[in-house]
Amino acid sequence: REQDKRTKVCLRLLLATIDLMKGLSLVLAFASVGFQSTCEAYKNVMGGPLESCSESGMALTGFTRSGECIDQNDDQGSHHICIDMGSTAGGNFCTVTGQPDWCSSKMGCHGESTTSECDVEHWCVCQWAFASYLEKAGGCDKIQKIVCEATNLEAYNSYKLHADTSASIQGALACLESRCYL
Description:
Shape: globular
Radius of gyration: 24 Å
Distance between the termini: 77 Å
Order of helices and strands: HEHEEEHHH
Structural class: mainly alpha
Strand content: 5-15%
Strand order of the largest sheet: 1-4
Number of helices: 5
Helix content: 40-55%
Largest sheet: 2 strands, antiparallel
C-alpha cells in the first residue's frame, strides 16, 4: 500500500512535469515564431531576406553593429544602403557628403575579437547621404557597387514616398531601381 502511494505521487509528479514541459514547449514555440517574424521582417530592396552588408575581413557595419543595414528609432540617418566604399569613383564618400573621414578608417572586424581592426569596405550608409553623394559626385555611375541583397527595402520605400520632394531623392530612387533591377 505504501508502495502504491509512492507510485501515484511519482506518477503525478511525472505528469505535472510533462504538462510543464508541454507548456514550456508551447511558450518556446511562440517565442520562436515571434523571433522568426522579427528577423524575417527585414527585407532587401528585391524583396528577399536582408543579407549582411559586411563580411569577415571587413569592418563591422550597421547602425546596430550587427553587419546588417537595420536601424532603431534613434537612427536619424536611416543607415539602409549597403555600398562598397572602394567603388566610389566620384570621390571619398565622407568628403563629398561633408562628414569626418571615417570612410578611410579602420574599425572592429566583422565576426572577430574586439581587438582586431579592419578597413571600412562594405558599409551601411545613410540613405539621405547616399542621395546627396549621388547628386554632388555626378550621378549613379559614381558608385560602381551597391550591394542590393544587403540594402534595406525601407530605403526604397522611403525614396518612393519622398521622390516628389527632391531631385536628389529622385536620383537615388532611379539609381536603386537601375542597379538593383527594380
